[in-house]
């Protein structure tokens, strides 16, 4: 038994398509709807975001929702739509894996596999994805300490996969004004302690679309390696997280400033 960490601060560069993320490489921009709702919706989003300059297309197909009555995603059908949209635009895709039962098919379709906030503590799943080759996007648990987050990444690395991208997405606090408290201090801390690239999700980090622009600027100012932002063709009709999603023009303005 050893306490020596695999992720010890030595820089890890993760390759995504033709892009490298981490170190001195330019920040990567990931965007797309919270959920894949239809073939038409995700294709519209993919082509619009490609034109704006997005590097990776995101979209949820297996949705862990607080309410069992909320939209749970399109599942494998949605995964196929997302993959088709990515291939049509040349964009790599990222989507969330919720359980080991879908690991093979998500691994077959996705360029990046996301482990969401609720599953950061799912250690059996973390061990399993350590055997995959794709980059893993590991979101911070909504109540996780920095040390717990580091250990979750260590589980993945210990089982063979060091291609990990961390994602700060806010943590729960006593304040209820925002959806979460976005912890930007975690960015330089996690870079120093693990050596892994880290992106920031200001959409979930604040839950308020008006805060996405200033928090995106702040994230890049403190050294984040990229941003993941929710963008929907028509947020007012979104089946999940519409209140915190940007439309194409709102995202374009932020992207141009960044």
UniProtKB/TrEMBL annotation:
One of its GO terms (biological process) is aromatic amino acid family biosynthetic process. Residues 20-255 form the DAHP synthetase I/KDSA domain. Pfam families: DAHP_synth_1. Coiled coil: none annotated. InterPro entries: Aldolase_TIM (IPR013785), Class-I_DAHP_synthase (IPR052899), DAHP1/KDSA (IPR006218), DAHP_syn_2 (IPR006268). Signal peptide: none annotated. Keywords: Transferase. GO terms for molecular function: aldehyde-lyase activity; transferase activity. PANTHER family: PHOSPHO-2-DEHYDRO-3-DEOXYHEPTONATE ALDOLASE, PROTEIN AROA(G). This is 3-deoxy-D-arabinoheptulosonate-7-phosphate synthase. It comes from Anaerovirgula multivorans.
């Amino acid at each position: 038994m050893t306490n020596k960490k695999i992720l010890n601060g030595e820089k890890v560069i993760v390759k995504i398509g033709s892009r490298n993320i981490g170190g001195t490489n330019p920040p990567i921009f990931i965007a797309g709807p919270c959920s894949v709702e239809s073939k038409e919706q995700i294709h519209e989003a993919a082509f619009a975001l490609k034109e704006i300059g997005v590097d990776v297309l995101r979209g949820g197909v297996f949705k862990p929702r607080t309410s069992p009555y909320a939209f749970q995603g399109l599942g494998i059908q949605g995964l196929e739509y997302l993959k088709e949209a990515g291939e049509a635009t040349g964009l790599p895709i990222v989507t969330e894996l919720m359980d080991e039962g879908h690991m093979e098919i998500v691994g077959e379709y996705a360029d990046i596999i996301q482990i969401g906030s609720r599953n950061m503590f799912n250690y059996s799943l973390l061990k399993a994805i350590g055997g995959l080759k794709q980059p893993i996007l590991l979101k911070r648990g909504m109540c996780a300490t920095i040390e717990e987050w580091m250990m979750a990444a260590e589980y993945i690395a210990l089982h063979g996969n060091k291609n990990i991208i961390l994602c700060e997405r806010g943590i729960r606090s006593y304040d209820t004004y925002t959806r979460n408290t976005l912890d930007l201090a975690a960015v330089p801390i996690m870079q120093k302690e693990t050596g892994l690239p880290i992106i920031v999700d200001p959409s979930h980090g604040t839950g308020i679309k008006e805060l996405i622009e200033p928090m995106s600027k702040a994230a890049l100012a403190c050294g984040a390696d990229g941003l993941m932002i929710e963008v929907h063709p028509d947020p007012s009709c979104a089946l999940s997280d519409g209140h915190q999603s940007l439309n194409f023009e709102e995202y374009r303005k932020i992207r141009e400033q960044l």
